[in-house]
Amino acid sequence: MLREAIGTGATVEEAKEAAFKELGVDTYDENLEIEVLDRGAKKVLGLFGGSPAKVKVSIKVSATQSAEDYIKNIIDNMGLSGITVTSSVDDNVITIDIEGDDVGFIIGRRGETLDALQYLACLAANRIDNSYKRVVINTGDYREKREKTLESLGKRRAIKAAKTGRKVVLEPMNPYERRIIHTAVQQVNGATSWSEGENMNRHVVIGPDGKNREYNNRGRGGRRGGNYGRRNSKPKQSPAPNPDRKPLNEGGEFGLYGRIDK
Q1: Which CATH fold topology does 147-219 show?
Q2: CA atoms within 13 A on the CB side of 100
Q3: Which DSSP helix (H) or strand (E) runs through 33?
Q4: What pTM was computed for the model?
Q5: Span 63-140: which CATH code?
Q6: What is the pLDDT of residues 42-82, one digit of tens each?
Q7: pLDDT one-digit tens code per residue, 78-123
Q8: CA distances from 152 to 34, 149, 169 (A)
């Protein structure tokens, strides 16, 4: 996508500077195109006629730059200071890192504000060309910490469901976070998970796996045959990890909200 600005000035150089200022650039690079529309004319005897120089400057904006500029603009309008925004791109994934003292306002409750910014930045990036770009926004390793927290939560609740035979209902989450929970649950024998609810109320439910009779019987009061009093009865063991079970791929491979088409 091209952004253009026309600058005017007493000279061509002054006209360029005016156009650069309007575009928010202060240097020459390969993405800039400069076209001199009018070199201007001096006034006769310094009194009559004359015209200003006029220059058109165009800059090609990449999807990465569009997403970064969008986030910077939002942060400026939030009135936050001391915030730095940097971006990088690897294949079709744009990563935006936000650092500063007031990042708590950007993260929001359980990352809700950060998720919303990521969604909007993805929209801004994918308005540039026809290729889809995934956008990931992170600050202070929040995403990594949140993922570890959800993995731990999913495994703990899965073990509890397998032991007690009762289902556990978690709070509403976005597709990306629900997928992390599903992946963690599927690593525990005797437990399974599924999603219920619609839109913003969609959440994960973790329950005992009906295909595993051993853990089902434990949840219903122990082993069959009234062996509660046997001295040699083995103590209950926690459900064993099972890395061979395939996790549910809820949310697809496109991040928090799935692919966003124009």
Answers
A1: Ribosomal Protein S8; Chain: A, domain 1 (3.30.1370)
A2: 17
A3: strand 32-38
A4: 0.58
A5: 3.30.300.20
A6: 766 556 667 888 988 887 778 888 888 889 988 888 888 88
A7: 888 888 898 888 888 899 999 887 788 888 887 888 888 999 999 8
A8: 56, 5, 15
